[in-house]
Amino acid sequence: xxxxxxxxxxxxxxxxxxxxxxxxxxxxxxxxxxxxxxxxxxxxxxxxxxxxxxxxxxxxxxxxxxxxxxxxxxxxxxxxxxxxxxxx
Amino acid sequence: xxxxxxxxxxxxxxxxxxxxxxxxxxxxxxxxxxxxxxxxxxxxxxxxxxxxxxxxxxxxxxxxxxxxxxxxxxxxxxxxxxxxxxxxxxxxxxxxxxxxxxxxxxxxxxxxxxxxxxxxxxxxxxxxxxxxxxxxxxxxxxxxxxxxxxxxxxxxxxxxxxxxxxxxxxxxxxxxxxxxxxxxxxxxxxxxxxxxxxxxxxxxxxxxxxxxxxxxxxxxxxxxxxxxxxxxxxxxxxxxxxxxxxxxxxxxxxxxxxxxxxxxxxxxxxxxxxxxxxxxxxxxxxxxxxxxxxxxxxxxxxxxxxxxxxxxxxxxxxxxxxxxxxxxxxxxxxxxxxxxxxxxxxxxxxxxxxxxxxxxxxxxxxxxxxxxxxxxxxxxxxxxxxxxxxxxxxxxxxxxxxxxxxxxxxxxxxxxxxxxxxxxxxxxxxxxxxxxxxxxxxxxxxxxxxxxxxxxxxxxxxxxxxx
Lengths: 88, 467
Fold this sequence. Notes:
The complex is a heterodimer. By secondary structure, chain A is an all-alpha fold.
């Protein structure tokens, strides 16, 4: 069935005053930074990090940061409220 | 008690079982005995159960038969066998949540609230169901208990993390099951196994005495083979519960009486853009459903891809926070794939997670505006039909994507803001696939009425596997 669009997407890009790029450096430097973050984060939080797990954790953190970069580049006003549930 | 031999328990609707038990045409004990026998016979193939509560079920069924004999009126789910994902507390059993670690947890002292509510309506719990470890899964695989298997092809995934729930209902072991859905774990198994699943509005059904995953995204809901059964179970489970801080203080809004209103007059659109179908099966399924509902327009769910990313990182972070102590002390006992994701989530910077929660509120306000134009939005439930167990990637248009991370591609942007969804199975051969019927918050009635209308037209149905 042929369908017609009734609503144009209101792209967030049209709202942006400036589109920021990811702050993470590319390539080897990024990998090194994530590697360091995993080492430091595990130590600071008291988490075990078996050498055999490192690549898996680094790969997953890289994926999280890739998704996070997409969220981070989206401009939000200073008074934006988080959506977490809390009832006083 | 004369009809037992004539009833096909393996494919009977819960509504029909309840009517027969309430009328005294069959006994609850005979229903439960047949169910237990079927589990013994078929579950070695499906691997859907991790515990069968045989004695409890038989005692409960006998109590129902005794109540009826003494003139009591039985509830709307009288004698209906059901099972629950093993993250629901069952009194006397440890709540393992798909893990090895929780096998040595003390037994639960009380049933989960939703089990209590279903049993108050006459249903009979027969066991606990397999699931992905700690619900961090879209595949239905479990390193400790083995993969639950798709009844339509035993070599294929059920989808997860409520994989046992999908297999048990689609495989004819029980007509009704409960699962949880944080990012798609009711809708994905519904799609891959070809059954109906309801993920209600966030906060609608109590989660009291169930093991959490991501508190701000966790939902519980039912699976069934008909929309009426889904509605019967849902109605029995509604209502405020102070034991779940996220449970909304709303009165129950029964849907069964509204089902026959159908979809007449509802404005239906198909989600475009990010949700565009990319396989032949997907296009066919969506076109069939859209045509049956007269949906001749597309609508854009703005920033859906970003919403999925935000759900992804909130999940990793909140999930890691939940398991932080266990990661410190028992990391080697996790499924390695789950452990690596949780460790990464624990290390992810908090500033990014808070930003995702802020984006979530913005996204919610934008998506809710769409419901001024439409009542129902249609989107596919999964990007593909059931992959093979162990399959690592699948083709998504021209792109090859990892299975584990992407089966929830279409479900995550919807549950991210808690919208109610009914997953409806389109019975394609050889494998089914489901469409999400998405409604505005608290309008489960709209989603279920639409699903029921499609079912009556024969467009959606739970296909019976050749087991």
